[in-house]
Design a protein that fits this description.
Strand content: 35-45%
Shape: globular
Number of strands: 5
Radius of gyration: 15 Å
Oligomer: single chain
Largest sheet: 5 strands, antiparallel
């Protein structure tokens, strides 16, 4: 897996992904949890095509800032870029934009796992 792999996920701010809807705030602006999910989605997709059959990645850690609000109707993009590979541990730089304006950035860690083995550890 090569350093520099990247992917950009895009969404539109709608009633369903506002702070009010998520319960993370009481205003109709893009929710921080929605931004984090978009960043994680970008990281997952950045490496998905480079995994072996039966493998996936799971999020383990994210450190991020959310520095500007985004209104209903705004187009939000999140880009994840692979910056380090240590065995199964993948580290990404993540950034989110409202148009051309940076609204959040940080670091995200994911681990490569065998899908079946991972799911087999869940209580039945």
């Amino acid at each position: 897996m090569n350093i520099g792999l990247n992917y950009t996920s895009v969404t539109t701010v709608e009633n369903s992904n506002t702070a009010l809807a998520f319960g993370s705030g009481d205003m109709e602006v893009f929710a921080t949890p929605a931004m984090v999910a978009l960043m994680e989605n970008a990281a997952m997709n950045a490496v998905a095509a480079h995994l072996e059959a039966g493998q996936t990645t799971v999020g383990s850690q994210i450190t991020t800032t959310h520095i500007k609000p985004s209104a209903l109707g705004a187009t939000i993009s999140a880009t994840a870029t692979l910056t380090a590979v240590e065995g199964r541990k993948l580290t990404f730089a993540v950034e989110a934009y409202d148009g051309e304006t940076l609204i959040g950035s940080g670091t995200h860690v994911r681990y490569i796992v065998d899908r079946e083995r991972f799911l087999s550890k869940l209580p039945r």
